[in-house]
Amino acid sequence: MKKTLLLLIVVTLFYSCGEYQKALKNEDVAAKFEMATKMYDAGKYTKAIRLFEQLATSYRGKPQAEKLFYMFSQSYYKTKQYYLAGYQFEAFVSGYPRSEKVQEAAFLGAYSYSKLSPVYSLDQSDTVKALEKLQTFIDNYPNSEYIPQANEAVQKLNGKLEKKAYENAKGYNTISDYKSALIAFDNFIADFPGTPFKEDALFYKYDSAYKLAINSIPAKMEERLHVAQTAYANLMKFKSDTKYKKEADEMNARVETDLQKFTK
């Protein structure tokens, strides 16, 4: 019984593969479309893609084209070919604006670009592009059922930009480029006012101002000590019991001592 069942499965698979290979070589586009749909429905998206690629040109403008290009787009998405999926979904939205699938296609097109976003430490050009695509979707379909998912993706992408901006600013502090660190932390705090890194950013901004001041020539030291003093005050105002309090207080004591030299 088991041998019979196994033989039946092998014969079915062989027949199926033979039919698929025949469809690939077949000049009959209707037969090719039928097989592509069969492969798509069976979840064999890679095989379906090969057929859709052959059919795309000849089916443009035909009644079944909408279904074909929707399945084509979905097949790229299901196989994680997100750049091609994004392109195909955008083409679908442009070509079939009245389709019942248009909102889904518009969302998946934008969402596909978010899948191309790399880890925060790498170049974030694709992240910025994905944010633009998602915002366009949100603006065009504010009442869509996909808005929660779009907002969640936007939040995640913004988090990458936020983390990268913070690490870049901290990097200047690490290499002792304190002037650049001060500028970078100011920009970071302005661009991300609600950031969870604000306490850290305020401390490292203070640390940068402090180290720049105490290592300055006498002509610039007083002004820079006042900048450091202000940075300390901003940190304490934001969180008086900051985890950096002991270190910050010790640094501030030195700032006040050094400032006394300029009041005599």
Automatic annotation (TrEMBL):
The gene is bamD. It comes from Flavobacterium ginsengisoli. It comes from the Bacteria. Keywords: Cell outer membrane, Membrane, Signal. This is Outer membrane protein assembly factor BamD. InterPro entries: BamD (IPR017689), BamD-like (IPR039565), TPR-like_helical_dom_sf (IPR011990). Coiled coil: none annotated. Pfam families: YfiO. Residues 30-220 form the Outer membrane lipoprotein BamD-like domain.
